[in-house]
Amino acid sequence: MSVAALPALTVAFLTDAPRVAGSEVWLLEVLPRLGALGIAPAVFLPQHAALNELASRFGAAGVPTTRYSDPAHLPDLTRPSALRVVQAWDAGTYTRVLPALAQPKVVMIHDQLDYHYPLGLRPWYRTVYRHTKSRGLRGADGLLTVSAWGQAFLSEQLGLPVAGYVPNGVDTQRYRPATPDERAILRAEFGFTRFTVLVPGRFAPEKNQLAALRAARHAPGLDFVFVGDMDSPLGSVVTRLQRTLRLKNVRFLGRRWEMPELYRASDALLQPTLAENQSLVTLEAMASGLPVVTTDIPAQAELIEQGVHGLLISPQPPLLALALRRLADHPDRAQQLGAAARARVLERHTLEATAQRLAEVLRGAISAETNLH
Asked: Which homologous superfamily is 3-169+350-372 in?
């Protein structure tokens, strides 16, 4: 029987996100593609103003969206569904909400899981995770994540039963290299004149924007453009530090939705991250043909082979700056890395492949629960 002949299965996706981050972008990109694969998605979002644009975009994409103020007031998510999928920021969502949901129910884990913090903080974080989110995850019928590394970590380090992983993917039509004429127009619109390094992401300690800012100090001949929630506590710290250091080569654009255009207008991506599961920012930049300078942590090494699809560098500002300066000085090398990066995404990380894999595992979760009864 073809997919088109299969009965549509309603799958409810619940997130407790206070704002838009990578996991919410993932939902927005993937869910609209499930209809063609026999899955009818519905999404449940908190009543946070920061999610209004996200809700609007779900509506425009044809995904039924319910806003809620308290997930406890959503008995079985208020409408029949063959499966419930929970994505949580708050550990309490797993302990309070997950047990109340009807089966089958699975958790989709985008959590970064392991933080490569200095000064002995890494084992402390693992202990905290084990006794907070990890404990609540045991109430799910199955766990899914987005990387082979994440699956192994959940299973081997935390002893959790993981049903599988769905590799992240990106829309390679939206995230693509610019034509020369398009690039010139975009750079003029954004005011990019020199070699421009894009630094996108929510401002959080693990995203390590402080290292990126300090790298800018070591590369005064390059321009650094930060995109993210500048009104967050860390965002305020970074902007104050930029003023204190009098860095003239740093700009802050705040939250932006036109990320495909920003990638196409930029010359390189800098992502000195200390924690990832499978980074959408990295994949978006790779699909856009940008050379990526990022951290040598396992999740990033799963996406990038050192020196082939990008550069994996210890997150020390002088070393990050040196790698970026060399890219600026050798445009042929930068172009070679960007082309190889896009080829890697086309081979392994298209959005179509992600949606297909997700539909398969969702149907598998439904079938497994049905067989048990």
From this structure: Glycogen Phosphorylase B; (3.40.50.2000)
